[in-house]
Amino acid sequence: SLISVTSNLAAALRILRYENSFRMLWVDSVCINQRDIDEKQHQVPLMGRIYRESTVVQVWLGNDAPQRTVATAFCILGNLKELCERFGWDINFSHIVRYQAIAQYGLPDVVDDLWGSVRHSVEMPWFSRTWVIQEIILFR
Fold it and tell me: Rounded to an integer, what distance in angstroms lies between the CA atom of residue 89 and that of residue 110?
């Protein structure tokens, strides 16, 4: 049967599809009837399991997401995560900045324009969605 989807989802499906083979996708707005409160209350507790058991999580940030900006942001965030995992999540960043050691950890200088890519990326609509934390944390 046919269903209506937003133009944003239609664009994502065009990009994410395989042209010559089958691909199964879980799309929250399609797989959960957004107008049925009972269904949503039943499905929401299952979301963690869905992300935990996924083999791949694809994030669609939209057609207007500048690829280089987003790639740069995720690289910086990945380096930041590695730094925090290495030294603990309560790391003293002012100490790292003060002693100009930030570059050796793959992070740009605090006044570098590259931090703007992080700001721009996290201000995108995807980061305001309810499931973002589960998508990031629970996926293997």
Answer: 19
DSSP state letter for 19: S
- 108 and 115 in contact (C-beta within 8 Å)? yes
Q: Give CA separation, 101 vs 46, 91, 92, in Å.
A: 43, 13, 12
3-state secondary structure 35-55: CCHHHHHHHHHHHHHHHHCCC
Pairwise pLDDT comparison (41 vs 129), residue with the higher score = 41
In the block, which residue shows the tokens 């869905």? 50
Q: 27, 131 in Cβ contact below 8 A?
A: no
Predicted structure pTM score: 0.58
- What would the two tokens of residue 91 be? 């790391």
CA 26 to chain centre: 15
Region 88-93: what's the mean pLDDT? 76
